[in-house]
Give the backbone structure.
Amino acid sequence: MTIDWSRERILIFAPHPDDETLGCGGLMSKAKEAGAQVYIQFLTVGDTKDHSPKGVSTATERFGEIKEVADFYRWDDWHIAFPGDEYHLRLDAVPRFDLANAIENDSPLSIAEIAPTVVVAPHRSSYNQDHQVTAEAVHTALRPSNARLRHHPRIVLAYEEAADQWRYGEAASPDLLVELDDRHIDAKIAAMRLYGTQVHDHPHTRSEQTLRSLATLRGMQAGVVAAEGFHAMRIVA
């Protein structure tokens, strides 16, 4: 199938700042290049202990990084639904009702407010609890119903990240591959560099080599130079 990205209004759900770039940085570059609208709904951000020399990345630092990445990609808007250490890496303690309502109706970038034609969210197979509950809450918010009463995006996708395969049992392979050119992958890498507190040297799931390798693998599977893989939850032609 061929998607005319110039006509799409895309709403991407990211549990944390950088997930949108890791999962669909190439797609964002391709879509904005074509003229699409792109909105990013982050779920949470807070201070995070890490393996950097400083040992922590602060919410203030990450807000600054978001602004740089937003300018780089020319997002139409972005928002954080549950900011602060009370929620960061603790979204599994938030009632599903509250998460789904924020996603569906209550956030300034909710599905009801933006009326997106395309929704993209993380895949449930992630080991990260914030990713899991975000995926499930988006799934709930997009439940089938009367499209005359509730907005139904034509396309609903789940993006993958390199570490999603780290789980018990077999993780399903993506069933939708979006072809990308080298410039789209270069843009993805450049955006990740702007997330300076989150990017790492190889071997790491957020290293440049990992991102390029996954794009090359998905491209090979599609017979093209590069691609990003997605799980199709709904496609209405």
Observations:
- The helical segments are 19-34, 59-73, 96-106, 111-114, 129-141, 182-194, 208-222.
- The first strand starts at residue 9 and ends at 14.
- The chain has seven helices and nine strands.
